[in-house]
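Q: Got a minute? One more chain.
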Amino acid sequence: MLQIKNLSLTHRKDLHTLAENFSLTLNPKDKAVLIGEEGNGKSTILRWIYDPALIESYMEAKGERILARERLSYLPQELSPEDAQKTVYEYFSEEPQFFEKNPRELAELSARLQMTADFFYSEQLMGTLSGGERVRTELLRALLSDPTTLLLDEPSNDIDIRTLEFLEKLINDFPGIVLYISHDETLIENTANMVIHLEQLRHKTLSRWTVSRLAYRDYVSQRESKMEHQEEMARSDRREKKIRDEKFRRIQEKVEANLLDPSHGMHDALGRLAKKKMHAVKSMGRRFEREDENMTEFPETEEAIFFKLGTEKSVMPAGKTVLEYRLPALYAEDDGGTRFSDSRPDLRCNPETGTHRLLSRGIFLRIRGPERVCIIGDNGCGKTTLLRKIVETLRERTDLRCEYMPQNYEELLDFSETPVDYLDKTGDKEERTRIRTYLGAMKFTGSEMDHPIRELSGGQKAKVFLLRMSLSDANLLILDEPTRNFSPLSGPVIRSLLSSFPGAILSVSHDRKFISEVCTRVLELTPEGLSEKTD
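A: Always. Here it is, folded:
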């Protein structure tokens, strides 16, 4: 059993409270997902559970964690720069249990994660592994210590669909506790039997947490039903209050008129009666005020973002050829970079000579009208590489207005700028006011609008890109993993925005909800080019 009692988290820098008196009990076979909007403290709680020292530099924590006999393993959201420079063998060597396992045990463990036993001794740098390889490697090292509890921070980021399905099976089959963070709704729906929801309300001045022993879809459905019921009760209370207050106003006016009637001064009995009635009216008013304090409140929720994507100028006529792109051969360099070549498609990677590795050949892509095309494929097959090349060619086009959202936001974002400065194209006061209004609608606080972009969360950076697209007249969006940093509760809103975009979309994604709900065509990048997926 793993137990948290009365955990309160406060930022040391601005004294902002992320959680207050948060309590939780997890038992074996609990598969609990931590959800909430970006910046709500999900990763911080996971780090604190694993090792409170990990957050001491930026967070003040008060509370108790009871681990009993639990053995914890933790997968961070990102590989540290130090670990990225280690070889796979060096990475495993830092786990003491690695040298206590015999060859048979290592072989059984690697087979469980669909890897070969000799991978433990690979000299490949950790930083050059694909997303799927990295997650499997981290899980392999985590399982070496025979943990009873797995703490996983965004294990579903940057991994292909095949690895996502493997991850689902691993979570479901794990006999102990799994506490994880993920933005992948399909993975959450297929694995979680418990939901922990962290919220920041009232412009992020009030924290709220909910622990529910329900599957994710059941939790969302129950939450929506409760919110709808509470909202209807609040409206009913206010309708009744309006009717009551109107009656009370008429009574009060009548009593006041009687009290001020000069003829009552000639009759002591009438005057006393008028004063008695006024006393009763005031008493009634005080009673109504007390009743109003207990009136049903409208539900407070951390609403998903809302804005419109696309303008009249974004409309793409049906049947119009938006893009025709050919590439005889696509290559990747040994150092993890990329290179494009139109010649020597038979070239293969040679580690000794440092020649380039062929990723794919005979690539042809055509997009017509308002199609929403998604490119899928295994990690490392060259999807992002291909997307970058296509973006390069579109810069020469004058008939298209294109906006690009890269997987690595630093490619286009100046992290030293504020969101307002990045989005402001004119410097006009009205333009900056409009931008701040839009950012407010996307749940940015006033201070966050003035923070350097480097201090924003991944989801907030993604929102900046979406707002830039919204403020433009783009008719073609190029999106590399557009939903990867949005919470599962924001996911439906993002998908709705993109599916209603009147222009064309070319994307790369492993998000199965995004693919099924937004994309009209799916292409798989293989060594033999792009192939249409019909299932």
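A: The radius of gyration is 30 Å.
Q: Perfect, thanks.
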